[in-house]
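Lab meeting, action items carried over

1. Structure of the two-component assembly. Owner: GW. Status: complete.
Input record:
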Amino acid sequence: MIRAGAIAAAALVVLSGARAEAAACCVSASAFGLGRLAVWENGAVLFTAAAAPSPGSWNEHGHYIANPTGTSDVELRPALTGLIALKPRWLLAGRMPWVINARSADGRSDVGHGLGDALLTTRVEAIQIGEYAHVPGVAVNLGVTIPFGTSMARTQRLLATDVTGRGAWALGAGVTLEETWRGTWYLQLSLGSTVPLPMAGVLPGHSQRFGPTFDTTVAAGVELRTGLVVSVIARASYETQLHVDEAPVPDSSALDVGVGPAVSWRFHPKWTVQAAVDTGVFVDGLGDNTPARFTATFGVRHAFF
Amino acid sequence: MRGVLTVGLVMLAACGAPSTSAVDGGNVLDAGATADGGTAALNIEASWITSPLKRLDNGLEVHLTDATGEHVEGANVNIALYMPAHGHGAPAPTVEEHEHGEYHSHAVNFTMAGTWEITVTATKGELTASHVLTAVIP
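Predicted assembly:
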């Protein structure tokens, strides 16, 4: 029972987290949660590669607008994630992405790349899965986003292909509840919030601050046979209004919703391959003020124990 | 023939509030003009050359006159782009001066689709005036 949930959770959170980083405008950041270790693991290293074409965007009134003919936008995001157990219930995790943007518009094309924003998180398991009968596992996550990436304010490229980060430090906190049934089924609920810190230099003479973001992710899955877990993930992220000089900017809040399947296969005691798809629903109202993305992620995880 | 899409006329003295006008993909939403009550000293008239507006290589024409209607030459004209809903700008377009108080940019580039504010600022000596246009880029 524990094994199925552990493998699934480790696969899910990192893969769905990769999608979350590409959400909202120009690389947002959810500063909590990078997955977890199974109870027998001392640490793990995970390499993921995500490809996220954008077929359009939602404007600030929630209307979905497909890209005009000749316009394309694809984000590629390889990332390295490390997790280490500091104590049996306490782990430290970090992720470092590399962001590649390929865009075309009006007969011009450009490709840019660079270091993305790093994420450093810690997770404390208040209640481990299976510790008490009929009580879900409960974990608290805290994190910080380190803005290594190039922000929109510093772009020098025609199509902003050099934008790889958001330009703001952010602090995050969240809680994850997870329950398993009959040794094969699991359900995971993650709730969290990320608070970006103020930025200077975007508007000369003014201070700017992105609004706090509230994230919800629900994942459910089943272990079909030993080591093979199939899941469905649904997520929603709401970013509150941007503030300039502490005054809210109208129509600057954002909503990003996605759903998709994920699969994780532990083909060796120390090796797991993972794959996930995340897509928005490209209709009016199921997004707001954010690019639309279809994200496919593939990952390889190596555990240490 | 050059298509003039929006004309924003502003008459402002130094430190005056900017006027605004708006374009939605080439369609005029509101072309407003404001004055500062008769103390105007530097006037900005801004017109889109490109129709409809697109992501790249949009043309913007700026015409400067003084309070008597004479062309103002040798001014410093800047164009700043900002996307309020996303909280970011884009690289500032280059501006070339032509004859008779005309200033042109043929490289107003929007890094992404959405609603943008385009602020034209002109400075001549101690006089400064600005004009804000709004455009929705598909």
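2. GW to write a short summary for the group page. Key points so far: Confidence is low (pLDDT under 50) at residues 17-24 of chain A. Chain A touches chain B through 32 residues (CB under 8 Å).
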